[in-house]
Design a protein that fits this description.
single chain; 102 residues; mainly beta; four-stranded antiparallel beta sheet; 5% helix; elongated
Length: 102
Amino acid sequence: MSDYKPLPHYLTLKESDIKQGTFGLFTTRDIIPNTVIGETHHTIDHRSFNGKHTTEIIRTPLGGFCQMSEQHNCTHVLDDGVGKLVTLRKIIEGEELSSDFG
């Protein structure tokens, strides 16, 4: 388990420019448009002992630190129950990633 990395190697956490008092995701290099940054959420379906069906959404560290903004540079896409963060345009080194949360 020592190889686990909660974020891609080219992202870091810093105090958010978008939402005061929180951390945001910042890139340490330029990223080209339409890059899949990684998985933000997983949807898990459960059937309980009493037969009820429930759906649980689990957020990854990538999803937890990406801030929402009207002037977003990324979007979320859903692919078979997995949310993925995708860049909408070129993102410059040092820029904070943000999303519309699709």
